[in-house]
Specification:
By secondary structure, this protein is an alpha/beta fold. It has helices at residues 15-30, 51-59, 89-97, 123-153, 158-175, 180-183, 187-192, 220-231, 241-248, 252-262, 268-279, 304-311, 313-317, 327-333, 336-341; strands spanning 4-8, 43-48, 65-66, 68-74, 101-107, 204-209, 235-239, 282-287, 293-299, 319-325, 346-348, 359-364.
Length: 366
């Protein structure tokens, strides 16, 4: 889909540990013959775990099973003063500008082995450090945008006058320390400032990195982080980067045994991958057959022709209709033939909005 998420955080919070575990773990668990983590040193493509694909394959045997994927970028650690070029600030801010959403890793564990850059563990302070740097950079960007749009608005252009109002609103909110994602609520306003590529406008989810002993009970740092996430309408996921890196190195049987010993049903990275996928506004539909069962990635709200275009542009151009059924139908009737006989296959046209989890067969003219 051309969308990517960035993993951000202060130095020594476990960001790269989680990134590396996501790449190696997803690759081993989900697919073969796919170049995971080979785009370049700080980019990775990971499989998105989806039990629905496994369920489909139980009823429709196939030669190959291909999951959905998403792109991650491990962004250089940020230090205070990044907006003015301190540390790797320019690299950090340049990379975050290019992603569509961010997973913000926050350290919620105490250890003498890994020194915190600010000397102590304080999730709210750490979040504020990064958010402040993003907003300082955004404020500079918006101020220059206001100057440019003001000149155009003087000509009486109504569209430019409206854009100027929104730019000034963002400028005011940033000056008050309010991130753009919180300052603007409407799609119209977000579209108006899209050209500025503002850093604090990116959707965010928080990742609480904890010790193994704290996987089942929240410590005070995690409680504070979750409360903050709720206050800004964001999701917060708790995982142990150290544990996840160990899980990623195990084969499937050993992995299952290790998870059971920890009292876990699945790796925390599975939840994280699925949450990042949704944060990017991505959804999944499936195609199934003798040669291949596959999860395809589409944007939420995609119509049937748009979803068909994900497979091949010719499918969208020559779209006739989509035959659709659900995993529940497959589980109830066991085979596609039985689903058809029961009248459960729906024939949908160009206006149909494909739902997450739909199993689809597209018909088109070449």
């Amino acid at each position: 889909m051309g969308l990517a998420a960035g993993i951000i955080g202060l130095p020594n919070v476990g960001k790269s540990t989680i990134f590396n575990a996501l790449c190696s773990g997803s690759g081993k668990a989900q697919a073969e013959n796919y170049p995971f983590c080979t785009i370049d040193p700080n980019h990775g493509i990971i499989a998105v775990p989806d039990e629905r694909l496994k369920s489909i394959t139980e009823f429709i045997p196939t030669q190959k099973v291909i999951p959905a994927f998403l792109e991650l970028i491990d962004i250089a650690g940020l230090v205070r003063g990044a907006s003015k070029g301190e540390g790797l600030g320019n690299q950090f801010l340049g990379h975050i500008k290019d992603v569509d959403a961010v997973a913000h890793v926050v350290r919620c564990f105490e250890t003498g082995d890994v020194v915190h850059v600010d000397g102590s563990v304080d999730p709210l302070r750490d979040i504020n450090t990064i958010e402040t740097e993003l907003m300082i950079k955004d404020l500079d960007t918006v101020e220059r945008g206001v100057t440019r749009v003001e000149r155009a608005a003087k000509s009486g252009d109504k569209e430019m006058k409206r854009k100027l109002e929104i730019f000034k609103k963002v400028e005011s909110k940033l000056s008050e320390g309010v991130a753009v994602r919180e300052a603007l609520q409407s799609a119209e306003e977000m579209e108006a400032i899209a050209e500025l590529h503002l850093l604090s406008a990116k959707p965010v989810l928080y990742v609480a990195n904890v010790d193994e002993q704290e996987l089942h009970e929240d410590n005070e740092s995690v409680k504070k982080l979750k409360a903050h996430a709720r206050s800004v309408g964001a999701e917060c996921i708790k995982i142990s980067g150290k544990v996840e890196s160990e899980i990623a190195e195990l084969n499937e049987d050993d992995r299952k045994e290790f998870l059971e010993s920890l009292g876990l049903e699945e790796p925390g990275l599975n939840t994280l991958a699925k949450s990042i996928y949704k944060l990017l506004g991505l959804r999944t539909f499936f195609t199934a057959g003798e040669k291949e069962n596959r999860a395809w990635t589409m944007l939420a709200g995609s119509t049937a022709p748009q979803a068909a275009g994900v497979i091949h542009s010719d499918f969208e151009k020559g779209f006739i209709r989509a035959d659709v059924y659900t995993l529940e139908d497959l589980q109830n009737y066991k085979t596609e033939a039985n689903i058809k006989a029961a009248g459960k296959v729906r024939s949908e046209g160009k206006e149909y909005v494909v739902k997450d989890g739909d199993i689809v067969f597209f018909k088109f003219n070449v």
